[in-house]
Amino acid sequence: MARILVGLSGGVDSAVAAALLQRQGHDVVGAYMKNWINEENIVGNCPWMEDIEDARAVAEKLGIEFRVVNLMKDYRDRVVKYLLSGYESGVTPNPDVMCNREMKFGVFLDYALEHGFEAVATGHYCRRRENADGTFDLLRGVDGNKDQSYFLALVNQYQLEHARFPVGELTKPEVRELAQELDLPNATKKDSQGICFIGEIKMSDFLKNFVPDSPGNIVTVDGKVVGRHEGLHLYTLGQRKGHGVASPRHGVAYVVVAKNPERNELVVGYDEPETPGLYTKSCTLMELSFPNGELSGEVRVLAQPRYRTSAEPATLVISEDGKSAELVFDDPQRALTPGQICAIYDLEDQALVVGAVFAEIHPE
Ligand SMILES: Nc1ncnc2c1ncn2[C@@H]1O[C@H](COP(=O)(O)OP(=O)(O)OP(=O)(O)O)[C@@H](O)[C@H]1O
User: Fold this and answer.
1) Partner of 181 at 20 to 30 A CA spacing, among 76, 135, 140, 302?
2) Does the keyword Transferase apply (predicted)?
3) Is residue 244 part of an annotated ligand binding site?
4) Is 141 annotated as belonging to a binding site?
5) How far, in Å, from the CA of 127 to the mean position of ligand 1?
6) CB–CB of 292/356 below 8 Å?
């Protein structure tokens, strides 16, 4: 039996996670992390008050203690700053991955350990395996549809040691069923969308309040001006909608294929493999993180360049200092994006072996 602090978000996954741990006989306390409050009335409908009440109702139903932990300052320092400086420098950051490393398994875990808990549990769909040598691996969740191991790509061994993922052994329908069986008050609550702190709004709407507009031309890959953009940070490579430029070819949309910061130009091209720069095989990764032991030299791996895509066969060549690597996919991948996270798994596609940030994408 262990004393475990469960991150209760108000959603059904973490509610069931708490119930499962309790069923296993652990001493469970639930806590809501207050990360962001829309006190400046910026944008978005941040449903945090409702979420806290939902989380509290779950704790009451389970008969466990409930706390609200205020981590707003840390969130600003560790996630919002990273997010805004990434966009300002022209890359596409991933605040969800950073929130897991810096908040849930960062300051929230520190809080838990300081307050007599052994571990932090969340409702993530992933698994933690204890190996014969006493180390831990992060595995994909059994529900291939819901697997969230990608979002934990940057956790380290210490964080894994103190993490628990009770719903990773279940499918989402099983989790919903259990929630109904246990009569949890949020059993039918709909899944949250978007980024944990900005609620149900679009990232571009959020960014407009923090990063000044910087309008420029939208050009095709052959340099023809076809429209205007409001700032390069508001667009992501591979983006099909929202750039406002209709393609002259029936059935083949224009997508964002590049950003040219020197000329403040957004480059669009047809969404097809022949378009220069849209599909690439090779890239440089930085900020390598090894969840269970450093790898070195050349390794065959499966690399997943974004959430909800498959992990693809690739060769990873790690630098001598272990901080960066060259990654070459066997087949070209669509819209590899600087700033985004690459989750790298072993060849069985179960255990995470490296997490990293895309630094540069090399054109063919
Ligand atoms: N504000 C929060 N306070 C405490 N824990 C949180 C909070 N936000 C997220 N978590 C934890 O992180 C997990 C994953 O968060 P995510 O935002 O991806 O939620 P989710 O997959 O919709 O899960 P849930 O159904 O529990 O909301 C949650 O299951 C929960 O354990």
Assistant:
1) 140
2) yes
3) no
4) no
5) 15
6) no
Strand ranges inside the chain, DSSP E: 3-7, 27-34, 65-70, 119-121, 126-130, 136-140, 163-164, 216-220, 225-229, 254-260, 265-270, 279-289, 298-304, 312-318, 325-334, 341-345, 352-362
Q: Is 9 in the pocket of ligand 1 (CB under 6 A)?
A: yes
For a ligand 1 pocket test, name from 5, 8, 9, 99 the mutation site with the most ligand atoms within 8 angstroms of its C-beta.
9
Q: Residue 203, SS3?
A: helix
Is 10 among the annotated ligand-binding positions? yes
Query: What backbone torsions phi and psi does residue 15 show, to the nearest 5 degrees?
Result: -65, -45
- Token pair 């047809």 is found at 270
Asked casually if ipTM beats, i.e. exceeds, 0.90, the reply is yes
How high is the pLDDT of residue 199? 56
Please tell me the distance from the alpha carbon of residue 254 to that of residue 259, in angstroms, as a whole number.
Answer: 14
Return the pLDDT at 196: 55
Catalytic residue among 46, 126, 196, 283: 196
What is the per-residue DSSP string for 93-104?
A: --HHHHIIIIII
pLDDT at residue 47 tops 90: no
Asked if 94 contacts 152 with a C-beta cutoff of 8 angstroms, the reply is no
Residue whose structure tokens are 């499966």 = 302
- Provide the whole-model pTM: 0.94
Distance (Å) from CA 122 to ligand 1 centroid: 7
Positive or negative: CA dihedral 331, 358, 156, 115: negative
- Among 172, 309, 322, smallest CA distance to 345 is for 309
Query: Is 196 one of the catalytic residues?
Result: yes
